[in-house]
Design brief:
By secondary structure, the chain is α/β, with parallel strands linked by helices. Helix content is 30%, strand content 17%. It has 17 helices and 24 strands. Helix 9 links the parallel strand 6 and strand 7. Helix 6 crosses helix 7. The protein binds beta-D-galactopyranose (GAL).
Length: 672
């Protein structure tokens, strides 16, 4: 089976030959009396919904006790959906084990960092490495697969739900045992492990595999490499669970594609999705807008990264919200127009399905104040009208379905290992935020109107003229070699403070920072110089640095200084450098400039790389451009209407000028 996956889109049971964009939601009919299901079908048709995710939290309903199964309600829902032309992304229902199971087998329950049991009463209370949980989850998966193998509504399988949302780090004895197995596979010998973990430090040498435990509560700073390996292991353990359910599904229903919903958003960082993406037939993501000044840049960043995890091919937006969520400190409702803009931004970055959590807003339970397609107010509501409008708009975009993202000339590198490692404790500062730095660079690119891809290190980096690699902290020798080759081949690399510092074991590259990139950058740093909260430094290009500075010495005549420190300890020293190497160059930014400062700096760096915006000059920065083949997506980043007539081509689903504030125009540029 291994060779025939990679990308298999879901099948449209009602008309497999027609490409279209999916539109729908998580559907939880078990929360409602039977007569509501009929209302649901009518309203789904009115909205133009064509797909739902079903049975995500239905385990207790399907299997009320160990040997009792009840599929009758699900049979009826499947038939009803099919009868109404709605396809089903059917969950394996394993996300939330029922109380009978965890009461019978309490060893399924996770144990937190401080040794406390995590009980049932919410959801996802299972150890990723529990053999007992695995057995029961696979039994349920098989039962569902066998029951619905031939059902005409079945379009795709949805493994579990948001794997690792609540249970990525488990410190139980099951986790300890599995961690040891994982470490034996990685290191083979205890000597190799002791070497990698640098256990001569603080007398941590292990003389037997059985002594090794997860990084549970300890007196002081836990061993950093043990922590890093535990992060890798924990991501792998969930990936193993994904594979186990997937293998059952592939065995029973080889024709049905399998996915699971990622959480490429905000600070959700436990799962290395760059490493997971090849395990499923198509990538799916859940995204929720986070409050703050960069909320929409963050949405674009996440959608962009998801599209590149999918190798540029279409992906499935499994969940987002029509309006407010229920899990932030204050849950702000979306303003008029934001629902469509958010959805279409995902489509712009490659989504071929636009789905929400959830179809009908719950009347009770922990998520009763979370928005849905049908709100508490019912169909006579602004939210439902916006949903119906969006459905109509998506139908006009069928031509977009199946098109791949068109690669940009610039890219921002995003690396889970650097994210994990750069933010470990016992560092020069605990204020560093890896994803925020990457987002600031991406925002600066948007501000300049430069289209950029957000890519994992495994992507074909050589295709980009400009490669921004912020805080690329973990630098295995092979990656440093690739970056040297990239620059030698004419590429323009930009990197920042705390990059190139350690190898894959979190061991420092010696001889002065930034270790593995020192020669490529033509600089040497003897000591880090982080800044205290509230401290800032001025650069002579008018920008202001916070968080970090470096005491840079230039080591190569080919290294030029693009900006100097004007204030603070480093006054008179280089703050931003660039070393020309053949046709390529390698630049270094030694402080945190934020999106505004980086916009200033990037203008020069991008021009040097020969990369400019593709939109007509007056629109650059005001409009985000995303390209899928012949389709250009123009997303108004401003609160003012914009005249986009200079972008020629047929407007699809939106004929009007101007481009309204925060609106989206889709321009077909193919014919003629
Ligand atoms: C996701 C989850 C959904 C729902 C949603 C609310 O994390 O998959 O079941 O809880 O968040 O925003």
């Amino acid at each position: 089976m291994q060779e025939d996956h990679g990308h298999r889109w879901l099948r449209w049971p009602s008309d497999p030959t027609r490409a279209r964009l999916g539109f729908g939601a998580d559907y939880n009919p078990e929360q409602w009396p039977r007569h509501v299901w009929d209302e649901d079908m009518r309203a789904m048709r009115a909205a133009g919904a064509n797909i739902v995710s079903l049975a995500i939290f239905s385990w207790a309903r399907i299997q009320p006790s160990e040997d009792v199964w009840d599929f009758t309600w699900l049979d009826e829902v499947m038939d009803l959906l099919h009868g109404n032309g709605i396809a089903v992304d059917l969950a394996t229902a394993t996300a939330s084990p029922p109380p009978w199971l965890t009461t019978l087998h309490p060893q399924i329950l996770p144990v937190d960092h401080d040794g406390r049991t995590v009980w049932h009463g919410a959801r996802q209370h299972w150890r990723p490495t529990s053999p007992v949980f695995r057995e029961h989850a696979l039994r349920l998966t098989r039962a569902l697969a066998e029951r619905y193998a031939g059902h005409p509504a079945l379009a795709a399988w949805h493994v579990n739900n948001e794997l690792g949302c609540h249970n990525v780090y488990d410190y139980s004895d099951d986790a300890a045992a599995a961690f040891r197995v994982w470490l034996r596979e990685r290191y083979r010998t205890l000597e190799a492990l002791n070497e990698a973990w640098a256990t001569t430090f603080w007398s941590q040498g292990y003389s037997d595999w059985g002594q090794i435990i997860p990084p549970r509560i300890v007196t002081s700073h836990p061993n950093p490499t043990q922590q890093l390996d535990f992060k890798r292991f924990s991501s792998d353990a969930l990936k193993e669970h994904l594979r186990a359910e997937r293998d059952v599904l592939r065995e029973v229903t080889p024709g049905i594609p399998v996915t699971t919903n990622f959480m490429v958003m905000g600070e959700t960082k436990g799962m290395n999705y760059a490493d997971w993406a090849a395990e499923i037939d198509f990538v799916a993501n859940d995204h929720y807008v986070l409050p703050g000044p960069q909320s929409r840049e963050e949405l674009s960043f996440s959608a962009n990264l998801t599209g590149n995890l999918a190798g540029g091919r279409p992906w499935y937006l499994m969940e987002h919200s029509t309006s407010a969520v229920n899990w932030q400190p204050v849950n702000v409702a979306k303003a008029s127009g934001e629902l469509a803009r958010d959805s279409l931004t995902h489509v712009a970055h490659g989504a071929d399905a636009v789905c929400f959590f959830q179809w009908r807003q719950s009347a009770a339970g922990a998520e009763k104040y979370h928005s849905a397609m049908v709100p508490h107010a019912g169909e006579d509501s602004a939210v439902f009208r916006a949903v119906v409008d969006l459905g109509a708009r998506l139908r006009a975009l069928d031509g977009v379905a199946g098109t791949s993202r068109t690669p940009a000339r610039a890219a921002v590198v995003f690396d889970w290992e650097s994210w994990w490692t750069a933010e470990l404790d016992s560092h020069p500062t605990d204020r560093l935020r890896y994803r925020q730095e990457a987002l600031d660079w991406y925002t600066a690119l948007l501000n300049l109107g430069i289209r950029a891809d957000v890519v994992p290190t495994s992507a074909p980096l050589e295709r980009y003229d400009l490669l921004v690699a912020p805080i690329l902290h973990v630098m295995p020798g092979a990656l440093a070699e690739r970056l040297r080759g990239y620059v030698a081949g004419g590429g323009h690399l930009v990197t920042t403070y705390f990059s190139g510092i350690v190898d894959e074991h979190d061991r420092v590259w010696l001889g002065g920072y930034p270790g593995a990139l020192r020669d490529l950058l033509g600089i040497r740093i003897e000591e880090f110089a982080p800044l205290l909260d509230g401290q800032s430094v001025e650069l002579d290009n008018g920008t202001t640095g916070t968080l970090w500075t470096d005491r840079i010495d230039l080591t190569d005549p080919a290294t030029e200084v693009l900006a100097w420190y004007k204030t603070g300890e480093q006054t008179g020293r280089a703050a931003i450098t660039r070393r020309q190497a053949g046709a390529g160059s390698a630049a270094y930014v030694s402080t945190r400039l934020g999106a505004a400062g980086l916009t200033t700096v990037l203008a020069d760096l991008a021009a040097h790389a020969g990369v400019t915006g593709e939109l007509p000059e007056p629109l650059r920065g005001h409009v985000e451009l995303a390209v899928r083949g012949d389709y250009w997506f123009l997303i108004n980043r401003t609160g003012t209407p914009l005249d986009t007539t200079a972008v020629t081509g047929e407007r699809v689903g939106t004929a009007h000028q101007p481009l309204e504030p925060h609106g989206v125009q889709i321009v077909y540029r193919g014919a003629g």
